[in-house]
UniProtKB/TrEMBL annotation:
Listed InterPro entries: MECDP_synthase (IPR003526), MECDP_synthase_CS (IPR020555), MECDP_synthase_sf (IPR036571)
Organism: Desulfosarcina widdelii
GO molecular function: 2-C-methyl-D-erythritol 2,4-cyclodiphosphate synthase activity; metal ion binding
Cofactor(s) listed in the protein's UniProt record: a divalent metal cation
The keyword Metal-binding is assigned to this record: yes
Entry annotated with the keyword Zinc-finger: no
Protein name: 2-C-methyl-D-erythritol 2,4-cyclodiphosphate synthase
HAMAP family: IspF (MF_00107)
Length: 164
C-alpha cells in the first residue's frame, strides 16, 4: 500500500536570526522567525510525512506552546518524525519539495539540504528532490518578507514487497 501527504510552511524573515533551510545555514542578512529554528523546508517535509502516514501534523507532535521546542533544530524534529512513521510501518518512496524565496538564491545549497535531510532519515539521497523558485516579486514572499516551502511525500507500507 502507498499513501501520499502534502506539507506547507511559511515564516517571516527578520534581522538578527540565522537563515536555516533544509538543515543548512545560509548566509543572509535575515533569518526566519519561529518558535524553533523556523526551517520551512523541514517543517513542510515533516507535515508531508505525517500526513501520508495519517499521523496528524507537526504542531500536534511539537507544539509551539511547549518550551522544549523553543529554538529546536528542525533536523532533529524530522529525525523524530521519520522514526515515528517507520515505527508505524511506513518507508519513504520519495519526497519532492519546492522552496519559495525571492532571495537568497537556493540553488547553491540544494545538494547540502538533500544530504542533511537524507542523512537524518537514513534514506538514499535519490529519494529526495528539492527545487526552488521566486514569486517574481509578487506578494509577501516576492517583497522579501518571508520564505515558504511545499512538500509532497510518498510512503509505502514496509510490508509491501514490490518497489515503486
Amino acid at each position: 500500500m502507498t499513501r501520499i501527504g502534502l506539507g506547507y510552511d511559511i515564516h517571516r524573515l527578520e534581522k538578527g536570526r540565522p537563515l536555516i533551510i533544509g538543515g543548512v545555514t545560509i548566509p543572509f542578512d535575515k533569518g526566519l522567525l519561529g518558535h524553533s529554528d523556523a526551517d520551512v523546508l523541514v517543517h513542510a517535509a515533516c507535515d508531508a510525512l505525517l500526513g501520508a502516514a495519517g499521523m496528524g501534523d507537526i504542531g500536534e507532535h511539537f507544539p509551539d506552546t511547549d518550551p522544549r521546542y523553543r529554538g529546536a533544530d528542525s533536523i532533529d524534529l524530522l529525525k523524530t518524525v521519520y522514526a515515528k512513521i517507520a515505527k508505524e510501518g511506513w518507508a519513504l518512496v520519495n519526497l519532492d519539495a519546492t522552496i519559495f524565496a525571492q532571495a537568497p538564491k537556493m540553488t547553491p545549497h540544494k545538494e547540502d539540504m538533500v544530504g542533511r535531510m537524507a542523512d537524518c532519515m537514513a534514506v538514499e539521497r535519490h529519494r529526495i528532490n528539492i527545487k526552488a523558485t521566486t514569486t517574481e516579486g509578487l506578494g509577501a514572499i516576492g517583497h522579501g518578507d518571508g520564505i515558504a516551502a511545499m512538500c509532497v511525500a510518498l510512503l509505502r507500507s514496509a510490508t509491501t514487497t514490490n518497489e515503486l
